[in-house]
Fold:
Amino acid sequence: MTKDQPRVLVVEDEPALAEGLAEALGFQGYDVDVADDGERGLDLAMRRGYDVMLLDVMLPRLDGFEVLRRLRAAGRTVPTILLTAKGAEEDRVRGLETGADDYVTKPFALRELVARVAAQIRRTRRERHEGDVFEADGMRFDLGRLVVQKDGEEIVLTPREGEIIAYLRSKQGNVVTREAFLLDVWRYPTATVETRTVDNTLAALRRKIEGSAEPRLILTVRGKGYRWGGG
Structure:
């Protein structure tokens, strides 16, 4: 998985459809996980970070409505598109009331579904940084545009770097562990990735925006993690 590659979870018990979805999304550059029953899908969605979940309603072990209900009750906000053969209005309403972000009735065109996935990712990323403009240590940060203005010049941030800064600031000066970064920003299961990934990335970001001076914004808390030192 590349560093800014979106992750999609497909929870679908029809093997041919699940395979087709995974192939179509993978072709668009998404990193895709597949679960073939509700319990497995719930477990993955609770443990890993995804940008979008495609969730079938009629699933073995737990149906899609129950999977979504438990996720929302646990505070998981992953954008979810429900997939179902049911077209009745009451089922659509139930899905949306349970917390679904979109609803697609089978049979559907793969091209349309891929477009809906892309739209959800664009929406959540835009909302995450929209209006997030602030000043710190003499620099002006515009996370919506992914630029930092410093000494009359513009420093261009990657989407991952923008997320790191936004995530640190959201913690209001509290320490963020490396494991939390991997789960919430990288969206990796922490058991499979070295935490050195976080150290290397934050060190590079600190050099990029703060230079070689003593760090004042991205602060290391020895043995624990990092915190934001700006306003």
